[in-house]
Amino acid sequence: MTGDTTHAAASTERGRSPWSAFRHASFTVLWTATVVANIGSWMYNAASGWLMTNLDPDPLIVSMVQVATTLPMFLFALPAGALADIVDKRKFLIVTEAALTVVSAIFAAIVSLGAATPGNLLLFTFLAGIGGALTAPAWQSIVPQLVPKQDLHSAIAANSVGVNISRAVGPALGGVMAAAMGWPPPTRVAVQPAGAPAVGSPIFYRWQGFEQP
After folding, report:
1. What distance in Å separates the CA atoms of residue 106 and residue 79, rounded to the nearest whole number?
2. Residue 125 maps to which CATH number?
3. Which of 43, 53, 55, 199 would staple 190 via disulfide (CB 3.0–4.6 Å)?
């Protein structure tokens, strides 16, 4: 009997669609918001690196853009993961993403006014990196609450696909916009993808709260 039950469960798992997670509207909305937000972040990263080569072409200074982008993940990812386990994830995401949107908007205004310097570029890049490091664990940890257990593998795989999509599309889109229209457009356009969906989706779309045994 146990063997038959195990075989039936395995057959059901094999027959489940890899797209099954998208049957749940809450997961679909938040997955889309995350992909769009990540595309905006990668657009900003591509444009900021290119902008630095025009502000100061010194190789060391240019390389500091990448340092400012990745250092927050090393410094804050572990504390952010612990924090996400203690606080209300929805409120935490709303506050953090709202702050990240404000930071992005301020820097977009600075670039539009022609007031960007290597110093403030590195500062705002670092602040944006902190926002990404703080929100990443919370976004990942809510996935089991968005889908039932049988669709969890599909949801995790979809998240990985979303990361790779944004990583491929964002830098290319940011580079094309910077080359065609200059530096301000990518930074201005990146504000809404990085902010509005990420802030709006937790506010207007509460996840269903599936309990995982």
Report:
1. 26
2. 1.20.1250.20
3. 43
Residue 137 neighbours by CB distance under 10 Å: 21
Q: Describe the chain by its helix, strand, coil percentages, rounded to 5.
A: 85, 0, 15
Structure tokens at 74: 């090393």
Which two structure tokens, joined as six digits, stand for 106?
A: 């301020």
Q: Classify 199 as helix, strand or coil.
A: helix
**Chain segment 21-58, per-residue pLDDT in tens:** 888 888 888 888 888 888 888 888 888 888 888 888 89
Number of independent structural domains in the chain: 1
Other Cβ atoms within 10 Å of 123 Cβ, number:
14
Can you give the pTM of this predicted structure? 0.77
Question: Is 174 within 8 Å of 190 (Cβ atoms)?
Answer: yes
> What domain range is 118 assigned to?
24-204
Query: To 5 degrees, how large is the angle CA 157–CA 139–CA 125?
Result: 110
